[in-house]
Records
---
Amino acid sequence: MRPDEILVVALGMTANIAVLVIVALGLSVIFGMMRVINLAHGELIMLGAYTVLAVTRATGSIWLGMAAAPVVVALVGVAVERLIIRFLYGRILDTMLATWGLSLVLVQGVTILFGPATQGLATPLGNFSVGTYSASWYGFFLIVMAALLLAATYLVFKRTRYGLEARAATQLPEMAAALGVDAARSHMITFAFGAALAGTAGALIAPVTGVVPTIGLAFIARAFMTVIVGGPAVLLGTTAAASLLGVFENLVSYLATPFLGQGALLAVAILILRVLPTGLSGGRQRGV
């Protein structure tokens, strides 16, 4: 391979790993911190994509749409947690059933409002040349955003009073309650934060995938595999799993076909879980 081809392939691979981090991070927060299996995570991503689509069409600014998406989906997350999830903590099967039903409702609702057809957004920032090849500046943007989202999540849960209370409410609930921590409020904020991350993911991937009511289905399986393979540590596990799975998927996709690349991702995930049943960060305590 020529040096310019290697650079373009490396950039594409890193951007795809960044996408995997972005779509899995919100799910990792909700599952890793709260032990809630949210089968409607893909639909929260979808709501973020449709928010940026609607705001862009209304204002002409895709950046305004990307800023609005996490806010809108966070508010949806608050409503979901208050109306559904808070009654089901500790009941994993009931939570899975409820969020699966919610995902069906959201898909049908968006289909009625926007129609079933795929709708596109122009990819911003343009391209640059690498030798005889062309690469997108938006790929760099996705890499930077993945790093910023990881840093923001770390700061929220490690450097704020809320983060301390949220970790205490999930890891030592009896002690946290004795110290006056409002567990219900912490759970609501944590779920809303995870939803905001999902909305951000939808907004960021919308320009490169197209917006359709079933957009979440394209990412939810890989997001769950990333979270499970990553293990209990939200940031370390998600980053390590996304990097490892992303490298294998992209290498096989480049050398063979994208279909075989997805098969390689699944095979590597199964192999890792056979060797490390608790994931890559299984030796660490649950949490950030």
---
Amino acid sequence: MKVTTTQLVLLIGILFLAMLACLPIALVGLERVPSNAPATQMAATVEAMLTQSAVASQSVPTQSVPTQTPVPATATPIPPTNTPIPTATPISYCNWLKFVDDVTVPDGSVFAPGETFTKTWRLKNVGTCAWTTDTKLIFVSGAQMSGPSVAALPGYVAPGQMVDVSVTLTAPSRPGRFVGYWMLRSPDGIVFGTGVKADTAFFVDIDVNEALPYGTVTGSICYPSDVNPPVTLYFQKVNTGELTQFSIPQAKNEFSVLLPNGRYYAYAWSIDFQLEGAYVNPDLTLKSFLVRGGETTSGIHLCDWNFNHHAARGE
């Protein structure tokens, strides 16, 4: 018997449907083919089913597992370390001094050739060791001015205390500027001074002038009334305490006098009223001034008046 193409396709379709019936597969979306449909339509339907099955088997995508991006570990913050700032260690020496003041003979004081004077320094013990009479004032360099090479301190000086240290000197016989340098020496032979390393000397600084022995001093007496009473005017030499005095008559409020070269304080006493007027610093202590040979020192006004004598600075 001769099998036609239509019959062959129909047979294959029947076999395929039988195979599908044995499989638990639900075919969704296929059109039902009526039983009375012509063979040509059934063949077309079977062919379409085969085509869809083949396409479905080829086009089902394989789901890829997404690659997880690793989450970076959170860094544990390191707390900042507070590095302490080193503080400067205070300098401390056993033997150490601080220069405080020139009690007598300020720098630039004028002396006649051969004139004798006493130089006094005010020093403070800023070391950790006490000074005793075995601690010495020593000359180290410059102009010695006939002074001793070694002189004892006046007494015990604890750390933090001050002391006035004096030496008697004589101005050189020739004119000029002269500077002498001095330090202290401990009982065990350590030489020390001032400055950040305790190695700086303190000094005496004078001018010797023989050209003209006198200078002129001018000023006024600011008495606290309309008319000045008679007053006695005093000029006290700073380094020796020597006094030169002048009588100023009533109603005369200006003066001009000649004085030997040197450094002076000036004050006046009103005898009738027991008041003292003085040439003073802002803190009302006596203010010194310099007299140079052949020169005029002006502006010495005695304007601060008090019942008591004015003290010199440092006293």
